[in-house]
Amino acid sequence: MIRASRTVVTLHDATFFSDPAAHSTLKVRFFRAWTRLARRFARATVAPSAATVSELDRFAGRPRRATVVAHLGVDRALFHPPTDADLAAFRAAHELAADAEWIAFLGTVEPRKRVPALIAAHRALRAERPDVPALLVAGGLGWDEAAERELTAAGDRPGAPLRYLGYLPVDELRALLGGSRIVAYPSIAEGFGLPVLEAMASGADVLTTDRLAIPEVGGDTVTYTEPDAEPIRAALAALLDADRADRADRVARARQRADGFSWAACARAHLGVYR
Q1: What's the mean per-residue pLDDT of the chain?
Q2: Which of 51, 110, 134, 145 is deepest in the core (most CB within 10 A)?
Q3: Which residues of 73-111 are buried (b: 16+ CB within 10 A; e: fewer)?
Q4: Closest CA to 204 of 243, 259, 252
Q5: Percent helix, strand, coil in the chain (nearest 5)?
Q6: Cβ atoms within 10 Å of 34's Cβ, excluding its own
Q7: Per DSSP, which regions of 225-275 are E strands?
Q8: Is the overall model pTM greater than 0.90, yes or no?
C-alpha cells in the first residue's frame, strides 16, 4: 500500500497511455494502474519535461500537488565533440575508411523510434544517390520485430549501406554521434529525449521529430521531420545538401543549448522535492 506521506514518484513518460501499441499488454496494464495510483496518492510527483506533465495530466488525472519538472542532463565528460583520435579509433574499430562519413541512429530499437521508416528512407535516398553515407544503427534490440528483421539481415558488414553495430562501448558514443553527417532520431514519443541532447552535446547535426518533449530539448537548433519514410528521406537529403556555414551554425547553437541541461540541476530539483 502506498504511504502518501512518505512517497515521491518520478514518472518518465506517459507512453503507456498515449502509445500503448509500442508496449506489451502486461506492461501497459501494470504501468497505467500504478501511474494513476501514484498521481492520486503520492505526496509529490516529478517528471522530466513539461510535455510529460501535460500528458500525465491528460491521461492519468491531476495529482494532489503540481508535478515538478526536472529536466535531465548530459554528461559532458562523455558527450562532447570527438577529437581526431576519437574518430580515428572509432573508424578503426568498425573498419571504416579514414575519410568515411555516416548517418547515425542511437537508441533502443523499439516501435516508437521508427527505425524501419528510417531504414526505408535511407534505402530510397541511396537508390537516388549512391554516394549517400551508410546508416549505422547502434543500441539494443527492443521489441520492434520489423526493425529486428531488417537489422539482423543487415548485420555488421564493413562497407554495407546499412550496418547494425549493436551496443557500443560508452567511450565510442561521442564519435558515433559527433562524427556523423547526421544523427537521425525519428521518435514519435519521448518523455524527455536524452539521445537528442547527447547528440547535440557531441556536436551532431540532428534530425528528429517535434513530438512531445523533444522540442523542449532541441528548440530551434535541430531539424524536425514527420516520422514517416518519405519525409525522413526528404529531410535527410536537405541536410546532406545544406550549406556548410548553415550546418556549422546549427551545430554550434545546439551545443550551446545543450549546456543548459545538467545532471546537477536535475539532482537539485529532485532533492528539493524530497526535502
Answers
A1: 95
A2: 51
A3: bbeeeebbbbeeebbeebbeebebeeebebbbbbbebbb
A4: 252
A5: 50, 15, 40
A6: 14
A7: none
A8: yes
Closest-CA residue to 52 (of 22, 14, 9, 16) = 14
> For 139-177, what is each residue's pLDDT tens digit?
999 889 999 999 999 999 999 999 999 999 999 999 999
The side-by-side arrangement of strands in the sheet containing 44-47 is: 8-10, 44-47, 68-69
- The answer to whether residues 175 and 203 touch, using CB atoms and an 8 Å cutoff, is no
Query: Which one-letter amino acid corresponds to residue 76?
Result: R
Q: How far apart are CA 91 and CA 87, in angstroms?
A: 6
Q: CA-based diameter of the chain, in Å? A: 62
pLDDT digits (tens, 9 = 90+) for 77-120: 999 999 999 999 999 999 999 999 999 999 999 999 999 999 99
Distance (Å, whole) CA 203 – CA 29: 39
Concatenated DSSP letters for 23-50?
S-HHHHHHHHHHHHHHHHH-SEEEES-H
Helix H or strand E encompassing 1: none
Residue 194 C-beta-side C-alpha neighbours within 13 Å: 16
**CB–CB of 207/186 below 8 Å?**
yes
Q: How deeply is 120 buried, as exposed, middle or buried, from its count of CB atoms within 10 A (0-12, 13-18, 19+)? A: middle
